[in-house]
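Summary for the funding panel

The consortium committed to producing paired sequence-structure records for every protein in the target list. Below we show the first two records in order, beginning with the earlier of the two.
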Amino acid sequence: MKRIYESILNDHFAHYTQMAFAAGPRQVGKSTIAKSYCEKYPYTQYLNWDKTKDRELILKGQEFVADSLPIEAILEQKPLIVFDEIHKYKDWKNFLKGFVDEYKGKLDILVTGSAKLNVFQRGGDSLAGRYFLYRIHPVSTAELVRISLPQKIIAPPQKIDNTEFNALFEFGGFPEPLLRQEKSFFNRWQELRQQQILREDIRELAQIQELSQLEVLASILKQQAGQLSKYSEFAKKVRVSDTTARRWINVLEAFYYCFTIKPWSVNISRTLLKEPKIYLWDWSVIEDKGARIENFAACHLLKACHAWTDLGFGKFELYFLRDKEKREVDFLITQNQKPWILLEVKSSAKESLSEHLYYFQSQIKAEHVLQLAFDLPYVDEDCFALKKPKIVPMITFLSQLI
């Protein structure tokens, strides 16, 4: 399955000598993308920390790793080296710092990992300035029809087959279950993936011993996706302290199980800074359809914000809005810290246009104000050309993202 990230890597190595860090959830396709990308190069070295032979070579030092590549030769295309899951090595930052300082400009360096590569501070010198981070997300609506590098922030709408869109909603955006579209395989794959995240990755890197309680917390998050995260309630249900519950959610975020969206407060009077909302990276495990639709939209918006930021279009962040009167809008995207897109998500177009959209638009002056209806069919209309709040098909809007 071709992904947009190959185009992103093409652009990176055509313009920059920094390492490319590709970080994202387990099973999102990072290794597949890296291996496919190796086919573009006549000389490559692919090293996976989880493989004993590769680990032994890395531990020998930088010069042994690079020895098999024609680094000093005059070539039309530089060699490529890939370090997969190297963040599991306790001294990985020092190793990469030494490697890039020695060989920068002589070869292309791609680093992939299923835990956030900039989270685990294990000492050593900083890698700041030596890499650009690209966050790998599950397949999105737009990626079903477009894998070229975007030239502008917003793409024109592009028609998507309803069958493909529904399959994406049902089976999620992780490539393997999406391609197979078999319910029995999907169920077994989900169970295995959760075990790998909670009982392998987190146990190995985060050193949490109470894994059974952590599994309970992960299950609770599935049922409360899109709701305000009340850490005291989580703590009571899991029987840990508030501090521990908060720390565990941070760990689950670091391993791409869930993500949080904070309330936006700048320049809005009487807004309360409350707990963030929590969503899952895999919307397909959420049973309630309304909650899944909102999580589905949240994942698409987060992917767009990450991609636009990673590609240098500016700084894009995702928030929600809520005030003391309990007026609320599901999502706000800011561009360079200024309100840009205000969005409400609904299951049906029969639901009237939210009055809260009008209220918050008058307060923050967002350029685009839309209500996304999940059940509306695709319409060939540029959602971003609209000047007033309007109900639009979610499928059309999502096709314009990334």
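The next record, for a separate protein in the list, is shown here:
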Amino acid sequence: MDAVKKNICPVCGYCLNFVPWDGELPADEMCPCCGLQFGYDDFGGSSPEGRQLIYDTWRVKWINSGMKWQSVGISAPQSWDPILQLKTAGLR
């Protein structure tokens, strides 16, 4: 996996400024776009495969709730398009 793909949120496809998981070590950071906190919200997955199920469920929930930007402290990029973001990341 290249460096850019490692920084993509597996839920919403947002390009993060951190790697969500480095092997078995979570970043303990939140995706400002979908709101998932790596190492907390996805901890119950206990494996990459288990976490993927959590990501898929979180994505459906995020989409069904209107794909709203979740961060209060970080503003959405000016031309942010969540549908294009999902498509570009191959998640929709």
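Regarding this second record: The two ends are 20 Å apart (CA to CA). The chain has one domain: 3-68.
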